[in-house]
Design a protein that fits this description.
By secondary structure, the chain is α+β, with helices and mostly antiparallel strands. 37% of the residues lie in helices and 21% in strands. The strands form 3 sheets. The protein has a 4-stranded mixed beta sheet.
């Protein structure tokens, strides 16, 4: 009798375990249809929700349409060296040096700048269009040999933005000379580099930046810095412009 009871008990346990086992499901078919987003969806807009949206929209429009400066020329991001990237790098170098302390070089990737800065009034909204990402400024301490690797990589891919205190000469797609503040790059020296967190992580082909020995987060986005920089120039009665200079020389 005990053997029978034991078998019955074991059978009950097995049945309970099988009933608790996770069931497996498989998709047998899928279907869908297109819902066109057009004005008919607004025919029965909820008045309360509409009032909330309009309240915030009005405030947002006022902020985005604020004029903070004027561009004397259209500043594009096309060409061998992007004027917009060069202008941005100059702004990063000048603003960070004046606000947080001296740096040796600024670096920005042209791909992170989303559109052209057109001639005429510059609004806050324009800054959101150009600097669309929430990239934060950081200062890295980097050995000269890794900075050299970075510029070597530029010659194989694309020329990114760097400030006018840097002189880069390329010959046959190789770095012939690289100076910072009028002095040749010292591969054993340590340089302070201001860039954005995205690039500091080695993204955008800037693998060399991952070799930094110190990383300081400035707790300000590139966009907010550019807004502050343009406002500062406007307060000094200066217009925004970019023009060719000798920071980059390419020899055949």
């Amino acid at each position: 009798m005990k053997k029978v009871n034991l078998l019955v008990s074991l059978l009950i346990v097995l049945l309970s375990l099988s009933s608790c086992a996770r069931k497996q499901y498989m998709i047998k078919s899928m279907s869908g249809h297109v819902v066109e987003i057009n004005s008919r969806l607004d025919n029965n807009a909820d008045p309360k929700m509409l009032s909330i949206v309009e309240m915030y929209k009005g405030k947002l429009d006022a902020e985005m349409n604020e004029v903070i400066g004027e561009a004397a020329t259209t500043i594009t991001k096309s060409g061998t060296q992007s004027f917009l990237a060069a202008f941005t790098a100059d702004a990063m170098y000048e603003y960070v040096t004046g606000t947080y302390g001296a740096v040796d070089i600024a670096l920005i990737n042209n791909g992170g700048l989303r559109t052209t800065l057109n001639k005429g009034p510059i609004t806050v909204g324009n800054m959101y269009e150009i600097f669309a990402f929430e990239n934060v400024l950081v200062v890295l301490e980097l050995q000269g040999k890794h900075l050299k690797q970075l510029f070597d990589a530029f010659t194989r891919r694309t020329i990114e933005g760097f400030p006018k205190n840097v002189r880069l000469t390329l010959k046959n797609k190789n770095v012939e000379s690289l100076t910072i503040n009028g002095r040749p790059l010292d591969e054993n020296a340590t340089y302070k580099v201001v860039t954005v967190d995205y690039l500091a992580e080695g993204n955008g082909g800037m693998e060399a930046l991952k070799h930094s020995t110190k990383y300081t987060d400035l707790n300000i986005t590139l966009r907010d810095m550019m807004i502050n920089y343009i406002k500062k120039l406007t307060a000094e009665n200066k217009k925004i412009y970019a023009e060719p200079d000798n920071r980059l020389e390419i020899k055949e």
